[in-house]
Amino acid sequence: MRPLAVEAYGVRLRPFRLDDTADVVAGCADPLTSRYISGLPTPYTEADARSWIGVGAPGVWAGGGAAYAVADPATDRLLGAVGLSNPVPYRGQAEIGYWVTPDARGRGVAGAATRALTEHAFATGTARLELLTHAENAVSQRVAVGAGFHFEGVRLAANPSRGGGRHDLLAWVRLADDPPGPAPRQLPDLPQGVLADGVVTLRPLGPDDVDVMHRLHTRPEVVANQAPPVPPDRAAIERRCRLSASQWLTGELARLLILDAATGEPAGSCGLSVSDPQAGEGTVGYALLPQWRGRGYATRAVRLLAGWAFGPAGLTRLAAGTVPENVASHRVLEKVGFRREGLLRGRLPGLAGTRIDDLVFGLTPDELR
């Protein structure tokens, strides 16, 4: 692929120039860029930018990849970068990556550049593109989905972490013959960002919800209904909250916070996991803080979640597993329309090598109350 300019989707892809130096520094020295692209020098200096423009980028082209500056077509000012690396010519495969300067974020620049270079790569003979993201970088994962890349799986410990150690990467893939447009999602976004019935509101869990989630999921009565009944430590809750957006985008799990609609106070949490994508089956779970119990909030939350699961998410069956002694949870499920389906003896791990029975409930769309 020759370093010729490409203009599409409101951006211009062109070779880097020395007058891009200050903007390259602004983009690569930014903490967010540095966090997710661990191979960048830190601190990132003007000398690093000049080395990239004069040596690094031309070297990428010489090695069969691509290294484009992403520019504003009206001003030719650099907005970011997009490129192809790790080419495998006999497979027709390459890896696409990008970054955007801080003042250009939120304008769709990364998505536009990714779509433009993806189409150009396919038009010039590439058959398969990979896009790898940090597991916590949900913004980049949205770019991938919007550009038509499908989640393929996790590359375990695939990248060195800044400061030592290694971390996983999520692999997103697009093929040359994939249909145009964004990739379909197993778990779509909530309509208007929330589910609400006037009494309770459900919104996606986020990184700022660590305190309430830790308070809720370390309560003895909540832990007793988990398998195994072991309270999570704060680090596990923090990771759960940081990965929530990513797990939603990959179609694995939708975690939500239950709020009192009148005050906005957190009342609990609930979730929907896609337990069997081929069968269209999901599994629900929920828990409330003590002061909100007995008000019907869990029933309302499960009903809202089930309606979304059977509607926009397109599932055809929901299941819920409970310990046999959790009568309050059984009543919640039955009020929503779930039916008892059976007792699976010793299905779940308990403490000290013991096993826990699992009382299973099921719901189909026509049974939702």
From TrEMBL:
Molecular function per GO: protein N-terminal-serine acetyltransferase activity; protein-N-terminal-alanine acetyltransferase activity
Residue span, N-acetyltransferase domain: 11-176, 200-366
One term under GO cellular component: cytoplasm
Keywords: Transferase
Cleaved signal peptide residues: none
Cross-referenced PROSITE patterns: GNAT (PS51186)
CDD domains tied to this protein: NAT_SF (cd04301)
Transmembrane segments: none
Source domain of life: Bacteria
Alphabetized SUPFAM superfamilies for the sequence: Acyl-CoA N-acyltransferases (Nat) (SSF55729)
PANTHER family in alphabetical order: ACETYLTRANSFERASE, RIBOSOMAL-PROTEIN-SERINE ACETYLTRANSFERASE
Entry protein name: N-acetyltransferase
Lineage, broadest ranks: Bacteria, Bacillati, Actinomycetota, Actinomycetes, Micromonosporales
